[in-house]
Automatic annotation (TrEMBL):
Pfam families in alphabetical order: DctP (PF03480)
One Gene Ontology term, aspect cellular component: outer membrane-bounded periplasmic space
Coiled-coil region: none
Protein name: TRAP transporter substrate-binding protein
Secretion signal span: 1-21
Alphabetical list of InterPro entries matching this protein: DctP_fam, TRAP_DctP, TRAP_DctP_sf
Keywords: Signal, Transport
Organism: Derxia gummosa DSM 723
Annotated NCBIfam families: dctP, TRAP_S1
Gene Ontology process terms (BP): C4-dicarboxylate transport; transmembrane transport
Length: 333
């Protein structure tokens, strides 16, 4: 009998150990947009693939619409390990101290998606990911959300129409310079607060890809929009570096495969979703959308071209030069 109690105790520990070993690795994936946006759909797709490929060894919990954290909070939460994965917009890394990411905010620097993807997948994009490692962050992939339209409660037909308008922006010195170049008054604000700010007149207008504008119902509180396509909005899917490095190698390999497939998916649906969203905004009759001719768009490009020079000290002249060289290599003047 003296031996039975210790034996029972050991067996209990063994059972508990097996149960613990079988517990899935939980990845909390937080983001600030709606589930039916390109990023939201890609996050859900990654969850599906990750759980399938790891045969249940990993459980991905997706928290959309700022359910866990707002814009300014989520990166700190990732560094602390409160969440394991995020997909913040590229502008978010400036306040973190990696200001070079704000090169993606430079207006009209990417003439088309081909140039953009060459930059993200090449030495520039991968070099930027390397800069995150000292912050305890590992970059996994770039997800597209397309080019932005401008909206307000007055028509924005030419650049001077933006003068004096209070325009919501992300926390980016480049976006600040962009709006000031147009004579606007930039207002930094969390994405989750924009609808109410537009509704109450705290800000006059904003910039967004159509999918964000539509899914957040901003078109219900904006009378006009113009397809300037002046700037790009993309995301970097990132993880807590310590968490990632400590994963079993076979699990990490399957998650990398899931991320690669999810990235292809995200980038494939972005344009389709934005086209559908812009059509839905027009169909609603609540926002009048102006479609610019190429000649009209050139006026906007010319008005914003000085921003490249203005922000060289912020993002690096060499970085801007490298992106322009990539465009030239692909035959874009």
């Amino acid at each position: 009998m003296r031996f039975l109690k210790p034996l029972g105790f050991v067996l209990a520990l063994a059972v508990a150990g097996v149960a613990h070993a079988q517990s899935p690795i939980v990845i909390k994936f937080s983001h600030v947009v709606a589930p039916d946006t390109p990023k939201g759909r890609a996050a859900d797709y990654f969850k599906k693939l990750a759980e399938e490929k790891t045969k249940g060894r990993v459980k991905v919990e997706v928290y959309p619409n700022s359910q866990l954290y707002k814009d300014k909070e989520e990166l700190e939460a990732l560094q602390l390990g409160s969440v394991q994965m995020l997909a913040p917009s590229l502008a978010k890394f400036g306040p973190l101290g990696v200001k070079e990411f704000e090169v993606f905010d430079v207006p009209y620097i990417f003439p088309n998606k081909e140039v953009l993807q060459a930059v993200q997948n090449g030495p520039v994009g991968q070099g930027l990911f390397k800069k995150l490692e000292s912050k305890g962050i590992t970059g996994l992939g770039y997800w597209d959300n397309g080019f932005k339209v401008l909206s307000a409660n007055k028509p924005l037909l030419v650049p001077t129409d933006v003068k004096g308008q209070k325009m919501r922006i992300q926390s980016s010195k480049v976006l600040d310079a962009q709006m000031r170049a147009l004579g606007a008054i930039p207002q930094v604000m969390a994405f989750s607060e924009v609808y109410q700010a537009l509704q109450t007149g705290v800000v006059d207008g904003t910039e967004n890809p159509p999918s964000n504008m539509y899914t957040q119902k901003m078109h219900e509180v904006q009378k006009y929009a113009t397809d300037t396509y002046h700037g790009y909005l993309g995301y970097a899917v990132i993880v807590n570096k310590k968490f990632w490095d400590e994963l079993p190698a076979d699990v990490r390999k399957e998650l990398e495969a899931a991320m690669k497939e999810s990235t292809r998916y995200a980038n494939a649906i972005a344009q389709q979703d934005n086209d559908a969203a812009l059509a839905a905004i027009e169909k609603s009759g609540k926002t009048q959308v102006t479609h610019l001719t190429e000649a009209q768009r050139k006026v906007w490009r010319d008005a914003l071209k000085p921003v490249q020079k203005d922000v060289e000290g912020r993002v690096g002249a060499d970085l801007i030069k490298a992106i322009n060289a990539e465009a030239a290599n692909l035959g874009v003047k």
